[in-house]
Design goal:
The protein is of the alpha+beta class. It has helices at about 5-20, 25-35, and strands at about 45-50, 70, 75, 80-85, 90, 95-100, 110, 120, 130-135, 150-160. It has a four-stranded antiparallel sheet, with no helix packed on it. Strands 3-4-9-7 form a four-stranded antiparallel sheet, with no helix packed on it. A two-stranded antiparallel ribbon has the order 1-5. The radius of gyration is 23 Å and the shape is extended. The N and C termini lie far apart (about 55 Å). The mean pLDDT is about 85.
């Protein structure tokens, strides 16, 4: 069985050969092949929606957006937090994660997502939840979202497996311009 990438490349090659055999102009063949190869940039993610009327996360402005919107399907109030249930479960490919970020409009409220970004690992199959806390008190300010609203943004990100190369001495690490300068070491200006 071919990998997804191999299948896409194979389709592109077949389209190029077919276009050549049908005497297509070279620009037409290039357009066909580049259209097929653009699928290499897309990540297939399986999604289960707890109800058929729930929508999958969507880009508000198409591929110009870095993130997709998550909607609250129901909202659960706890004494110290508010949990927005999205009603969706996903299966990410290996070496991919789902990052959850607040929407920019949240900045002018006292609410925040405490573990930003929220990370969904590729092995997680539970419901995608978005948890909110308030800087002061949950009763101080009206929660800015209601059921059906876009409450957060999400992004599928590929990561690499790390292989640690342990060294015996600090001097075995290559020198760098920054060195061991940490918090605030670069100044304000």
């Amino acid at each position: 069985m071919l990998s997804r990438e191999s299948e896409i490349i194979s389709r592109a090659i077949c389209a190029a050969i077919d276009g050549y055999n049908q005497h297509f102009h070279i620009h037409e063949i290039e357009d066909m092949v580049s259209g097929i190869l653009s699928d290499l940039d897309k990540v297939p993610v399986k999604i289960y929606c707890e109800s058929p009327e729930y929508s999958v996360p969507e880009y508000a402005h198409g591929i110009e957006d870095a993130c997709m919107d998550l909607r609250a399907r129901w909202i659960e109030r706890k004494p110290d937090r508010i949990i927005c249930h999205t009603g969706i479960h996903i299966e990410l490919p290996p070496l991919h994660q789902l990052n959850i970020y607040p929407r920019s409009g949240l900045a002018h409220t006292g609410y925040y997502i405490p573990n930003t970004p929220g990370i969904g690992d590729s092995g997680y199959r539970g419901e995608i939840l978005v948890v909110f806390c308030h800087t002061q008190n949950l009763n101080r300010e009206e929660f800015p979202y209601k059921e059906g609203d876009r409450v957060a943004q999400c992004q599928v990100v590929k990561y690499q497996e790390v292989i640690w190369d342990r060294v015996n001495f600090l001097n075995d690490l290559a020198p760098s311009k920054r060195g061991d300068g940490g918090y605030g070491s670069t100044g304000k200006k």
